[in-house]
């Protein structure tokens, strides 16, 4: 098996200190502000994001369990295969959040809408582009029990 290096570009400074404090989805707490601190060697890669309202933030959930192939989503009473869920516990615990930019200054991005706990490594950021990232007509699996996914 070929191994690849993932190098964090920064870290999240979050009010959530434990996994239990963090929401299951960041959008559920869109008013909660936190800071992404980009490491100095990567700060030249930041822009001012004047025309961008949201970022895709890829995180490394370093406290996740990596040996689980089944997870019980909050909307279900049954375990499901991990790759059909958004569980942070998975072989490669990559987190995907879309956060609302509040400000960008001196290598720090003030952002809202993430579910990261304090000191979560950031592995990449990308601008959220609605014309590319929103797929009209896309479907999602819904539980017949709750109607939520």
Automatic annotation (TrEMBL):
The keyword Thylakoid does not apply. Gene3D superfamilies: YaeB-like. Pfam families: TrmO_N. Keywords: S-adenosyl-L-methionine. InterPro entries: TrmO-like_N (IPR023370), YaeB-like (IPR040372), YaeB-like_sf (IPR036413), YaeB_N_sf (IPR036414). The keyword S-adenosyl-L-methionine applies. Residues 6-137 form the TsaA-like domain. SUPFAM superfamilies: YaeB-like (SSF118196). PANTHER family: TRNA (ADENINE(37)-N6)-METHYLTRANSFERASE. Belongs to the tRNA methyltransferase O family. This is tRNA (N6-threonylcarbamoyladenosine(37)-N6)-methyltransferase TrmO. It comes from Methanochimaera problematica. The gene is tsaA.
């Amino acid at each position: 098996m070929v191994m690849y290096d993932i190098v964090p570009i920064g870290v999240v400074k979050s009010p959530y200190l434990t996994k239990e404090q963090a929401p299951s989805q960041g959008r559920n707490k869109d008013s909660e502000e936190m800071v992404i601190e980009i490491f100095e060697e990567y700060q030249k890669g930041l822009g001012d994001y004047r025309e961008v309202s949201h970022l895709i933030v890829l995180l490394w959930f370093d406290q996740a369990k990596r040996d689980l192939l089944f997870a019980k989503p909050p909307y279900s009473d049954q375990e499901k295969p991990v790759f059909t869920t958004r569980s942070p516990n998975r072989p490669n615990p990559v987190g995907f959040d879309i956060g609302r930019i509040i400000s960008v200054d001196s290598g720090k991005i003030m952002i809202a809408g993430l579910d990261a706990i304090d000191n979560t490594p950031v592995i990449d950021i990308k601008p959220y582009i609605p014309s590319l990232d929103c797929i009209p007509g896309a479907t999602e699996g819904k539980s017949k029990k709750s109607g939520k996914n």
